[in-house]
C-alpha cells in the first residue's frame, strides 16, 4: 500500500473519532472541522512518525495539542481585547440620496476590484486621500485621479448624473490682469 492509500485509509477510519474528540471539547461544528483538518495536516507532514499499529492515540495527542494551542490563543485574544479600549460607535456613512443599499452594492460589485477598494477606503473606512494613498502604495495625486475615475464609473453603473468639473477660466477672461500684464 502506497503512502497516499495508507493516509486515506487512516483518515477514513480515524476522522469520526477525531471530530467527536473536538466536539466533546465544546467546539462548534466549524471549529471542530478546523481542528480535524489541522490534525490530519500534521499527520500528513509527519507521516513517517505515525505508529500505524495504533495510530489513534497519536492522532488524539496531535488534536489535543492543537486544541490547547487554540484555547491559549483565545485566552490571549480575550485578554488583549479587555486591555484595549473599545472604539466609539461609528456612525455609518450616509447613503447617496435616492439610492438604496442594494442598488449601491450592485453598482459597486460591477466595478473592478481596484475601483472598489479605492471607494471603500474613503467612503466606508473613512480614510483621507493621503491615508488611502499610503494603503494602496501610490501618491495622493494618483489616488485622487483613481478616486475620480472610480466615482465616475460607479455613477455610470448607477446611472447618476455627476456634476461636470468647472472649466478653469484664464484670469484675463474675467477681467483680472496677469502678472505679465501688470509688469509690462
Query: How large is the share of residues in beta strands?
Result: under 5%
Give the CATH superfamily of the largest domain. RNA polymerase sigma factor, region 2, helix turn helix motif
Q: What is the number of beta strands? A: 0
What is the arithmetic mean of pLDDT?
Answer: 84
Low-confidence stretches: none
Class of secondary structure makeup? mainly alpha
CATH class of the largest domain: Mainly Alpha
How would you describe this protein?
The chain has 184 residues and is an all-alpha fold. The chain folds into 2 domains: 3-83, Rna Polymerase Sigma Factor, Chain: A; 101-158, Winged helix-like DNA-binding domain superfamily/Winged helix DNA-binding domain (Arc Repressor Mutant, subunit A, Orthogonal Bundle). 66% of the residues lie in helices and 0% in strands. It is built from 8 helices and no strands. It has helices spanning 3-24, 29-45, 55-83, 101-109, 113-124, 129-136, 140-158, 179-183. Helix 4 packs across helix 7 (140-158) and helix 6 crosses helix 7. The protein is elongated and about 75 Å long.
Describe the secondary-structure layout:
Layout: H1 3-24, H2 29-45, H3 55-83, H4 101-109, H5 113-124, H6 129-136, H7 140-158, H8 179-183
Helix pairs in contact: 1-2, 1-3, 2-3, 4-7, 5-7, 6-7
In short:
By secondary structure, this protein is an all-alpha fold. It is 66% helix and 0% strand.
Which key terms come to mind for this protein?
single chain, 184 residues, mainly alpha, Rna Polymerase Sigma Factor, Chain: A, Arc Repressor Mutant, subunit A, 2 domains, 66% helix
Amino acid at each position: 500500500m502506497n503512502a497516499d492509500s495508507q493516509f486515506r485509509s487512516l483518515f477514513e477510519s480515524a476522522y469520526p473519532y477525531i471530530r467527536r474528540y473536538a466536539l466533546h471539547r465544546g467546539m462548534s461544528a466549524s471549529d471542530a472541522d478546523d481542528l480535524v483538518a489541522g490534525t490530519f495536516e500534521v499527520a500528513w507532514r509527519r507521516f513517517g512518525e505515525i505508529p500505524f499499529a495504533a495510530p489513534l492515540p497519536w492522532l488524539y495527542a496531535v488534536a489535543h495539542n492543537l486544541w490547547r494551542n487554540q484555547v491559549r490563543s483565545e485566552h490571549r485574544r480575550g485578554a488583549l481585547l479587555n486591555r484595549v479600549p473599545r472604539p466609539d460607535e461609528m456612525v455609518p456613512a450616509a447613503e447617496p440620496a435616492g439610492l438604496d443599499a442594494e442598488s449601491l452594492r450592485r453598482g459597486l460589485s460591477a466595478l473592478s476590484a481596484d475601483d472598489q477598494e479605492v471607494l471603500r477606503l474613503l467612503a466606508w473606512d473613512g480614510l483621507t486621500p493621503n491615508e488611502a494613498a499610503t494603503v494602496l502604495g501610490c501618491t495622493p495625486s494618483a489616488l485622487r485621479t483613481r478616486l475620480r475615475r472610480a466615482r465616475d464609473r460607479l455613477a455610470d453603473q448607477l446611472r447618476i448624473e455627476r456634476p461636470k468639473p468647472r472649466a478653469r477660466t484664464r484670469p484675463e477672461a474675467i477681467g483680472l490682469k496677469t502678472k505679465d500684464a501688470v509688469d509690462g
